[in-house]
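Question (not urgent): is this output format expected?
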Amino acid sequence: MQTPAQDALAPTRIEVFHYQAAIREPIVTSFGSIPARNALLIRIEDRDGAFGWGEVWANFPPSGAESKLRLLETVILPMALGRSWTSPAAAWIDLTQRMRRNAIQSGEPGPFAACIAGIDVALSDLAARKAGLPLWKALGRLAKPDPVMAYASNLNPKGAPEYVAMCRERGYRAFKLKVAFDMKSDLANVREIAARLREGERFMIDANQGWDLATARPSVEAFSQFPLDWIEEPIPADDPPEHWAELAMLSSVPLAGGENLIGFQAFDAAIAAGHLGVIQPDICKWGGISCCVAVARRAIAAGRRYCPHWLNSGIGLHAAAHVLAAVGGDGLLEHDAMENPLQAVLAEPFPPLVNGRFALTDAPGLGVAPNLPDAKSFLFHQSEHRK
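Got this back:
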């Protein structure tokens, strides 16, 4: 997405918002629990007064939003303010290069990548708004996309069949269950949900890197008896390629992953190897919109399925939806179905699901913005930074 020279992206004012909301039931995963919902937003304004919203991945660990907030305020934003770029991609390249030594020195490449990704999303929103284009169109899609299929994600294992039934009533037609807790109960949940699926519904499971290779071997074979679209992250993302290759051969269900990969080289290797049938970069965790569009197109061209990862507020959700709509393919949109008071209020007007689908509008940029007055009760920290 290029920006004319006279409309160069030149941030002069950047605001950071940390929101936190209590929830009745923690989100449970194989690697730990999430006791509250956090969202870390960035608003970038340029010298012309144009603005854009972005989001930084910050749902784990529980203190992740605070640490990234301080990283933005003390290191990254002072570097970004006053600079000028021809495009969001140029900004991502520039900031990544300038922050390279900082990331190495701190031992925190992930947090730096997530913060720069959030800036890229905000600049992409800003550039599209200035051009008067919806983001999906600014990314190269000419015809208005059909609503994208969304799936209910984050479903806890306890009471899983009941959660699926409730999600169905809320408009979902696809569901993803967390597994890798206890094999007996995991299988019972999957068996019951699969038996109750209705025509046209989709079902996936996510182990959240919860198995080692020895446990994953019989697990993927056992789950292969069910009509699953994919098995997500059965083993740690940094396990050797030969482990992933073995599991891919043992499983008749495609394997999925990508949310924990960083860098073009890592994604290129994963796509080329073919062990992952589903590629899932997280736009606000690495690469932003600029890089994840490239990864998505590369994945689709190689015959893989692109399904963006996202579980936080509605800003990141809309960013993921725009990329999915722009690149095409048959991918599904990850849609947080558990209690999340920050999801809709931080991205209004928030679209309801209709027959399991999530619709984007013709409004410029992301097409949504936080309702700051209504979200004020969740505001944990806000800061403003100027050139």
